[in-house]
Amino acid sequence: MGSIYLIRHGQASFGADDYDVLSPIGIRQAEVLGAHLAQLGLRLDHCYSGDLRRQQHTAQAALAQFDAAGLGAPAIQIDPAFNEFDADAVIRALLPDLLTEEPEALHVLRNGAQNRAEFQRLFSKLVLRWVSGEHDKPDLQSWKDFVEQVRGGLERILAEADSKQNIAVFTSGGTITALLHLVTGIPAESAFGLNWQIVNTSLNRLKFRGSEVTLASFNSHVHLELLKAPELITYR
C-alpha cells in the first residue's frame, strides 16, 4: 500500500495583520519535521501543497532538510483544493445571527490574540453552525462544497499515484478534518472536535491501494515532543 502524509502547516501569525505568514516558531517546527523524516530515511515520491503561503513555506522549509541530508525531494505541486476553508468569510457571514445570543462576540473576535480561550469558544460555535448546513449564505462556500473541493484534490492524487509511493500533502487543519470525514465517515461535528487538537506540523497518515483509502495514524507530533520544548507544540 502507499502512504499519504497529511501535514498541517507550521504556526502562523495569529493576531498579526497577515495571518498567512509562518511565525519563527512555525519555521522551526517545519525544519524539525523535515529533519525528523529525513533521519527516518523516508523518501517522498510526490509532494503537494495548497497555495496558501503558510502551507508552501512549511513545505519548503521541511523539504530543505531532505536536500541537506542528501535524500533529495520532489518538486512541490500546488493544488488549491488543499487550501484551508475561509475562516474570515465564515465569521463575517455567520456572526450577525450569533450576536443576539453572544453580544460580546464582535469585540472578542476582533481581538482574538488577547482573548484566545473566548475566541476559540465563539469560533467553534460559528464553525459548527457552518458545518450543520442550516445557516448557509449565498456568498459563502458551504461545508458540503468545501468537502467536495477536498475530495477532488484527493482523487487527483490517487489518479496519479502508484502503489507503494509516499506522498506528502502540506495543508491545514480544516482540510485534514474534511479528509477525516471523507475517509472514516465520522460526522462533521465530531471531526471538528478532533480538529482543535491538530498540532502544527503534525503527521496524519492515510494508506491507499487504488481508490481505497484508510486512516493509519492521526496527529503524530513526536518530532516536536522529542525536543522537550513545549513552546514548539502549538495549535494555531
Automatic annotation (TrEMBL):
Q: Spell out the InterPro entries in the cross-references.
A: His_Pase_superF_clade-1, His_PPase_superfam, Mito_Ser/Thr_phosphatase
Quote the Pfam families the UniProt record gives.
His_Phos_1
Which SUPFAM superfamilies has this protein been placed in?
Phosphoglycerate mutase-like
Superkingdom of source: Bacteria
Which sequence ranges are marked TM in the entry? none
Keyword tags: Hydrolase
In Swiss-Prot or TrEMBL terms, this protein is called Histidine phosphatase family protein
Instruction: Tell me the organism.
Output: Metapseudomonas resinovorans (Pseudomonas resinovorans)
